[in-house]
Write a structure and sequence with these properties.
This protein is of the alpha/beta class and 138 residues long. Helices cover 36% and strands 15% of the residues. α1 links the parallel β1 (2-3) and β2 (27-28). The protein is globular. The relative contact order is 0.15.
């Protein structure tokens, strides 16, 4: 699931996901459309912070994670914008992104065997709610 109001970014992400063999249930540009798509029960949602209806990404992430059991990854050009927000998100992928980074993110997020989130790489920062700040700046 993609929650992104920039059409070209959403299309690029969808292409990367499909090329890697993943099914995309759809793209949403605002909160209302995101909650509608959540009914499709996606495993992962890539969520931008600032959307068509404002700074709603963190609230969408919280609701998708807690009410729908979706694993959320923020997708934003400003990763520090999610610092201190209790969202239930797994991590943040910086824009612009490369297809290889998207694949690594999916592998990481879907790896239930990981005892602890892995060390961050250059594109993707994994964080837990208990030490969000330190993981974003690692």
């Amino acid at each position: 699931m993609i929650v992104e109001d920039e059409v070209l970014v959403a299309m690029d992400l969808e292409s990367s996901l499909c090329d890697a063999g993943h099914e995309v249930v759809g793209a949403a540009a605002d909160a209302e459309a995101a909650y509608e798509l959540a009914r499709e029960r996606p495993e992962i949602a890539f969520v931008d912070v600032n959307l068509r209806d404002g700074d709603t990404g963190p609230d969408i992430a919280r609701r998708l994670a807690h009410e729908h059991g979706v694993r959320v990854v923020f997708l934003t050009a400003n990763p520090t914008s999610v610092i201190g927000r209790s969202t239930g998100a797994f991590g943040v992928l910086s824009k612009p992104f490369e297809a290889a980074a998207v694949s690594r993110v999916i592998e990481t997020v879907l790896d239930d065997a990981l005892p602890e989130p892995p060390a961050p790489d250059n594109d993707f920062r994994v964080f837990s709610m208990t030490d969000l700040c330190s993981r974003l700046h690692a």
